[in-house]
Structure formats: C-alpha cells, structure tokens
Amino acid sequence: MTELAKERVASRMPTADLIIEIQQLLFREARLLDAERYDEWVEMLAEDLHYFMPNMETRFRADKSNIIEDLTRAAYFNDDRDDIIKRLARLKTGTAWSEDPATRYTHLIGNVEVELTEKGDEYVVYSAFLLCRGRNERDEDIQVGKRKDLWRRTAEGLKLVQRTIHLNQNTLLSKNLNAFL
C-alpha cells in the first residue's frame, strides 16, 4: 500500500456501529473460549486463518530490527485453521492430561481499536487481553498482552483471518500453553 493510500484509509473513521459490532464480536469470542465452546469458536475462523504468537526477545531500544514479525523465528503458535482444529480434536480424546481436570479461563478484552482497510470488507482490529487461568487447587497463571487481528466480513458474518499475539512476558512461566488468546 502506498503512503498516499494509507493516508486516505487512515482519514476515514469506522462508524460507531462497526466499532460496537466488532467489540461485541471480541467479547463473544472471549465468552466462547471461557466456556470451552470451541466448535462455535472455530466457526468464527476464516478458512485462510493465520494464528501467530512469536517468542518475545528483550532488545535494546537502539536495535531496530523487526524480528517480532519474522515468521521464520520460533513461535508459540504459528498455526492455520486446520492446526487449531487438530489441537481441539485432541481435547476430545480424553488423553489431554493438562485438561483433566479442566482449566478455568477468564479472558478480559479491552482497548479495542478498529481501522478500515483498502478492502471494504476487511478490518484491522487492535486489542489488549488479560487471561486468568486456574487449574486444580493452586495452579494460577496470568497472561497479558496485545493482539492485532484482521477480520473479514463474509456471508456467514465476520471471520478472523489473521491474529498476531504479543505477550508482555519474555519468558512464559505457565506449565503449558493450552489456551487460545
């Protein structure tokens, strides 16, 4: 996209109705994940989904290399829709030891910002999240970060096309990473 095209898109503001629609969509997604209603959540995912959460590296401010978006580097998630469906199928087998007993989740979503794109049916959506996970009597994890999504309007509704997740933690201290963010 040229700089002029970027300026034209940036000068157009999304409508209040669109912002509310997308906020409600993100809140619904969080509720579905909290309730482990994964089949319904998968319906929100586009066929060409890319779900990406790179490992974080601590870097000095002077280091301007853009390693965060480098898809060739190590990542916690670098999945497509089929990969996610395989992960979810494993939960249904009864052999996912990290989910028996079940983990309790609460996703909090905020700082939602919607940007229009050159394509009238796609929207860039920024958000922040706080995920609280509780398991057994004493296992508790909190994960905090931000996301950059691309959502596309289809005949079936808005679909998640791309999600890039950045955790604030440099080192993931959780015993497992069995949550979708």
From TrEMBL:
InterPro entries: NTF2-like_dom_sf, Rng_hydr_dOase-bsu. It is an enzyme of class 1 (oxidoreductase). Coiled coil: none annotated. It comes from Sphingopyxis granuli. GO terms for molecular function: biphenyl 2,3-dioxygenase activity. It comes from the Bacteria. Its EC number is 1.14.12.18. Belongs to the bacterial ring-hydroxylating dioxygenase beta subunit family. CDD domains: ring_hydroxylating_dioxygenases_beta (cd00667). SUPFAM superfamilies: NTF2-like. This is Ring hydroxylating dioxygenase beta subunit. The lineage of its organism: Bacteria, Pseudomonadati, Pseudomonadota, Alphaproteobacteria, Sphingomonadales. GO terms for biological process: 3-phenylpropionate catabolic process. Keywords: Dioxygenase, Oxidoreductase. Signal peptide: none annotated.
